[in-house]
Fold each of these.
Amino acid sequence: MNSWSWEVFFDAFPAVLEGLGITISLTIACYLFALVFGFGWTFIRRIPIKPIRWLIIWVMEFIRSTPPLVQLFFIFYAWPMVPVIGVALDPFTSAVLGLGIHYSTYIGEVYRSGIENVDSGQWEASTALNFSNRQKWTKIILPQAIPPTIPMLGNYLIIMFKEVPLASTIGVLGILSMANDYGAQYWRYLEPLTIVAILFLILSYPSAILINRLEKKMNRRFDKKTVLGRMNKGKGAVM
Amino acid sequence: MNEPMVKFKDVHKSFGDVEVLKGINLDLMPAEKVAVIGPSGSGKTTIIRMLMTLEQPTSGSIIVDGENLWQMEKSGRLVTANEKHLRQVRGDIGMVFQHFNLFPHMTILQNCMTAPIHVKQENKASAKARAIEMLDKVGLGDKLDNYPSQISGGQKQRVAMARALVMRPKIMLFDEVTSALDPELVEEVLEVIRDIAHEGRMTMVLVTHEMEFARDIADRVLFLDKGVIAEQGTPSEVFGHSENERLDSFLRRFRR
Amino acid sequence: MITINALNDVFPILIQGIKITVSVLLASIVLGYLTAFVAGFCRLSKNVILRKITGFYVEVFRGTSLIVQLFWLYYAFPILFGIEVGSNFWAGVLAISLNYGAYMSEIVRGSILSVAKGQTEAATALNMSRFQRMRLVVFPQAVRMMLPEFGNYLILMLKSTSLVSLIGMTDILYYGDILRSSNLSQAPMVYLLVLIFYFILALPLIWLTRKLEGFSKKGVASQ
């Protein structure tokens, strides 16, 4: 068996690196899509009509608990075959839709927990000050609800980055595709796949540390009434 | 009767750069009731936490019933005690905490049965009988199957006392046991301590802010200030007119 | 488009994949939780070397992508060490359980650390040994904190089983892909059915997660 070869490693490195631009831009596109779409979920599930709210909750649950890989295939292979509304989409767009929608259901929950953690007194105070409904949201509630969720949203950026290689299965030419192509061409998988792993580690590990720091800072600033504070409950609890 | 139950010999304790105890010498006699008072941060709690082995002294030694608590002999030399040695020596000591520290995942009865069964290898039936007896004694015989979250703070503290008592300690330590309680719940807890004290068998050390109570039940009162025992004596000596200015001003804050 | 006849063709084929999906899931759950506890406790160990090695494992598996780990285990690992992982089944199960085991070990560690310090002290005051303190007092409370998170990971693991079709295992998605490539116009119904299959498998896990959340609210110190 031929084992590790540095020659192959350095030969494969530029080839794999070529996909990095695509991987990163796909990550950002999917993430932005999920951030925006997440807001959509958060608001439509506040519709005060029970059956509709119930339906939306189950749709979110359905999207969240079925594999993103299958959802990608659905959008890429099946959507064009759907009569009337179906259109063919290129791999990149399919991936943005598929991963974006999948993770928007998670991000919607993050927003929701942020909003629910705003003290009910804030609603009452803004009513007492005669703010309009729109003003309540934009001036009072959201400015308090969103900042504490930033570290959690940051976590989802890293999660998204690690999910993006799924898109190689529908032909998006990110680093994983490049490594697989190299492997298929020269029948050397070890080095290119290791390069991919290293690239992921190099990019995601420092970001994770950064977000960890941010989280600690936020915790100090927003004390315990925030989402993160709530997640950390139990620490120092006594009985 | 003349041999001290516990002996502190020149005990020092530092946390990082801060020395909280600067040479404590103290004898506790069998069945003696000692109240420890003093401003917060004076190191009162640290004294009993070291005796309970929750905190290791920086230097000095603590002798419990003739045995060195924090050191043991190993091939002719004194070395820091290991877990096994600590378990051997601290078996006679029990403690009640400021924040109760009841086990939330166990019922009141289980809270009082677990240690006898697992630590003392008592059989279940006798451990249960003993636990019920002690819970009756603290007035909670009707709460056996409740969980700690379902009872009041005063009741929790009484359970904590029953939990310590089932182990038949010779020495009981009370760490500001009423300061986390609502004022109206304090008396029911003090009542139980009074009962235990009147039975008389145990050595008791009470770190407390309840001056009236300390005067009532203590044989001796220690005033701890800035890491040393600044004053000690019978309650009437300490709470009477003292030469010590710091003690005077400390007590005046409570008389108001 | 979706005719009863087509459904009759598709359904029996897809259902053949359920056995693989479920067995990969079950094996991954068992091995994943096992890894989580072993790694979680190792990270709390007094032994520095053990702590560092487990720390390295956790960071590597959390820092890279599951699909990359799967391919690496399946294609690269045998080359590097000259040994096969055994089969694509084990490559899949190992990748999933090592990946999620790394994430869950952090939950194990965090939960144990977040049991209030007073609990250990009370147990010490009752003269319990180190092991008894962990077994009787700290661990039972820590587990209650872990459970809801563990429930969420059940669903993540279920979703990740779909990846094993990429290394040639004949799971639900594999049969879905076969059906799609034989008749592209069936694709919408095929994938919709595949999604529904996964959702049906997820339902008991969702239910279990809710139960665990309820259970964990009861017995943990909070005041």
Amino acid sequence: MTTILSPLPGTFYIRVNPESEPFKKAGDAVSVGDTIGLVEVMKTFIEIKAEVDGTFVEYSAKDTEPVTAGQNLAELEG
Amino acid sequence: MTLKIISHGLSTSIQDLGRPGYFHLGIPMGGAMDRFSLRVANMLVGNPEDVACLEVVFLGPKIEFTKSVIVAVTGAELPILVDGEPRDTWSSFEVKAGQVLSFEFLQAGARAYIAISGGIDTPTALGSRSTYPIGALGGVDGRNVQTGDELPVGDSSNSKAGLSVDEKLRRLPDTPARLRVLPGLYWHRLTEASGNNFFSDEWSVAPEADRMGYRFKGGRPLEFVDREQPFGAGADPSNIVDGCYCYGSIQVPGGKEPIVLHRDAVSGGGYFTLGAVISADMDFIGQLQPHAPVKFEKIDMAGANSARAERKQMLEIIRKELRQEPKTQP
């Protein structure tokens, strides 16, 4: 199991806009460089990218909720 | 050239103690959001206290050094690595030519200050190297530091590794942060109940928070004393006929979310200001993360002056301590 951590504090989003599908769903293949979420801080959206290949398991942080630096955002398998 | 910016993090800028004297022309003082931490960072590396440092927000940069220097990082708890080996914050350490300074994830606070012996030696604008991007003044050609930049560093003969500031003298806000406020010229515009609510409610830092101002949300909306708005003030009760703003002044557009103006503030406008955060607490605002809880506390002028004196005293204690022999390294 690999965890993806937030590099900075802000607000977490799992989709590009409220009408979109989440970036990843359980079972999706994940490749290095895939965007799995966004963290908004100081009016800027930072793309959170996978640093390993694997299979998406779940988001561990809630959509539109505050996150801190180092907080677990999502889990991958493999 | 001694600093190569391999990556700039989120927002890294050159800051010193700013360019006072031009606010009446609309050019803000600017400079470090946390002046205390910038001064102490410079003291640790043997620089004059007003020398230019890097102000790092939330996410550390990655920097290669082409000359051996002494470095110190103060302010936010941003764990330091030199070629992957940890170093202590609020302490001076050597970085040799060819080594890379990088950082782990932020642990506390919002802004870290990287001081380098000799200081960053970019050209000054109106007497300061501080970056004011809105006016394209200072910094690197008027902008923040970017990946690929090479920054000049001045000479130093006065620096040593192994100095450290006592933990009790490191200054970061509490949780919730206490920001002391001196009620201002327009305080009478609020109803008594509403004025009390402002100080009893808990607020938190809104996403719109930067060097120009910090916005807060979560408290009850303000209620204003009824009046016929003066000519030119506009219909909203939070509007006035234009007035001057001071650093730390609190405007509340629409009576909803207070904004505390900070170092890159505008100098005037048409919002009433209910008061100002006192100078001794302005540094704390620079260390608040998004969503951080905040309580505003009412204070009078005598209290504000003694808080300012206490902060000066803390700096004086650190100055004295750092003049002593360096502590032995573990």
